[in-house]
Structures
1.
Amino acid sequence: MADKWYLRADADGIVIHGFSDDFEVPQVGDVCINEQAGRVFSMQLSDQRGQPLYKLVDSQLIERSEEERYPFAERKADARIRLAESAEAVFKRAWPLVTILAGLNRTLPTSWEFNGQTVDMQAMFDAAFLASSQATLQKMAAIEAATTQEELEAALHS
């Protein structure tokens, strides 16, 4: 064989397969991209998430943009998942403290005197937990309302 590298694309021109003619016979429509590349095809064709990196346009290899690989709807769904995972991680980290406070709440007074003021420990804990939950819900609402990539980025970093 001649150690030629070939690419195969789907009906939309997205590169879905690459190979050397030492190991596979080219089919009609396969495009030779290098006639002296070597015996083993070693070009990375997809990113870490499995999305194809290239497309063929008039037999020319062109890198796909991030927007092509990850449409807005998919990015929005990913943002919702990341936010939910982050909120879950915060809750899991806080859970030991919650159980300690719950135990203390049964054995100690629920309010304390501090600098001449009465502090309601349960109300303070509830307020902190509620504020965290509300912030997560507000961020999720902002993600849902986003209609552009810029709005989505702003929601993620708010």
2.
Amino acid sequence: MQEQREKRRLAAIMAADIVGYSRLIEADEKTTLAAIRAIRAEVMNPQIAAHAGRIVKLMGDGAIVEFGSVVDAIACGLAIQSGVREKQRDEPSDRRIAYRIGVNLGDVVVEGDDLIGDGVNIAARLEQICPPDGLLASGAAYDQLQGKIDVAFDDAGEQQVKNITRPVRVYAARIDGTTSALPRKPKQHRWLLPAAAAALALVVAASGGAWWLWSQPKPDAKPSLIVLPFNNLSDDKAQGYLADGFSEDLTTELARVPGLLVLSRTAAFNYKGTDASRATIAQEMGVRYVLEGSIRRAGDDMRINVQLIDATTNTHLWAERFDGPWADVLSLENKVVEQVALALELRLVKAGGDTAPGSTTNAQAYEAYLRGLELEYRGAPQDFAEAVKHFKAAIALDPNYGKALAELAWIYDQSAGTEEREKALGTGQIETANLAWETLQQALKHPSSVAYQLIARKHTYQWQAEKAITELEHAIALDPSDVWNYREMAQAQVFAGRPEEALAFVEASLRLDPRDNGWPTWVRGMANFSLGRYSEAVVLLETNAAMPGGKEYPDLLPLMSAYGHLGAADKAAPLMERILALSDAVGDRGMTVLLAAQMVPYVKMEDVTRFQEGLIKAGVPELPFGFDPNSKDRLSGDEMHKLMFGHTIAGHVLDNATNAGSIQAEDFKGGVPWSVTVSADGSTAAYTWGDVSDSGGHTRFEGNRDCFYFRDTRACAAIFRNPTGTRAEQNEYYWLHHWNLITFSVRE
């Protein structure tokens, strides 16, 4: 009997799925499913029908769709992304639904209504590596688009995707003016030496996208540029903030030009006020081109001089003078970007308008923002207070000015818990923390790189590193030149349990700013610790601890754990003295593994265990108040789970081990009432402590330790039975924070 021949056809396939679907469902299944149904009914299904698509498969978090042409598939995918983003615009960042989409043109095998084969598989694999809110197209699909669709794409190079033997050429669509960052996977290396950093290239894609290669590029494969601080030639020297701010904004906007690598502001401003030659700067920073200029302002009139120099030959490639009223400063900035791109023979594509996300078109608001930024960078408490006034003025002129909102949130965030700054602002600690959070929520409605960076940092230190990584992908997309986006991403990758990826992001940060401020050394040390390379970790963490910024718990505690794993008691003893001195200074009065767990927020249990075991080997006590960690009265994780989930536990503070007084609020002293309520599924928690209360918290178990985190607080605890306790006295159990010993019983 003749074998039946397979039915094949060429098809354009779109694969789409939801980023973080499991996390969203776990957090709030009912609301998430309702939102997904609404998106399908109001966005996806109408767009698929409008573009003559056919749904091949529909899964809980995504779909496979067939189209008769690539143009229809791409147009549909872009329309879906735009519609979903608009529909989810006002959702909190941790509840926002984001899709990722892959499109491929390929041969498929027809089995009834189903399609299988590489044509489908490649689309699905592209979707899996696509950043949130993005769209990736295979080279085969992209080749069909020339001149047929008014959307810009950036070349992301060849990507090796799962279960596809050959590399796939990938192109990323620019949606609403941005493309999200897509890091190419690092090569399998055991260590990236500092000397190798200079050989790594960061290739920045247009309109907020960044693609970086972790292998050595060809010399000058892509043009590289540094924007030096512009000179202030105004008669009023106090207007230096205009020149500085203009330079910084040019850096951000030029970084959004396809194929151009622009070094960070921090690297460029290192040369402010120096007499370093262009050739020296180019050699030290590893760039070919230097952009420099000046600003002169007299009343409402302004003159900007700009010149682009090839530093390798000291040749002027382009120079121009721009004259106009200050009200036109933002359009003049766009002209400079256009002319630089033209001089470097780069393609400049505008998508979604002339202004970057989070920006303003109001020149007065822009000037107020620049005044605030200059004061913020000074860093003194009174400067912070003055900066707040200018940022508020900018927001009053343009309530949707996301960058101003984000910088204002940053000032409040950095001031909360710092007495001198709070005094200058005229706010208390709780009020300052509330202002930081409320302002950040407003900033996230008009996102900027700084807003995403801020919320990501909060996620990282609340055991939510995966969430932080998603937010930082957005941050890098909006500002590929901000070195702190990559530094924060490297930190989040470490705590998420991805040390190799963390090392890659460190190298990317060093390409944007080759100077090591201690952070890259610290992340390298942390990554090596996670990889079990304790000797290498010690060298790096010791170097970091010797730097001016290496004085906090996350700097010192991993080093102590590494000493423990190496049996280096001679080094552990003096480091313990340093840790104890720090604990006294901040009011913690001692160090335990319980406290360390909340200061170094590893997500994966293998990392948690590695960190804890090293500390114990180094002599750090596991628990406070003299409790035996191996006591039969200690509750296991399962026992804690059963005791707390779906219940309210209540009691009172028995003892505290902190410096009471200015550091410890009155409500947190011994004898005050205390309670914790946890939902039946453990997804939410609330507490009351004297007159202080908070809700919307979360709980996570680390073995026989329970860690809670709320908006501005986090703490880990162990629970012991009290053999002599009674329900009437509310003391059947002991709750051990590092700082407090609490007795309690289950109330309901």
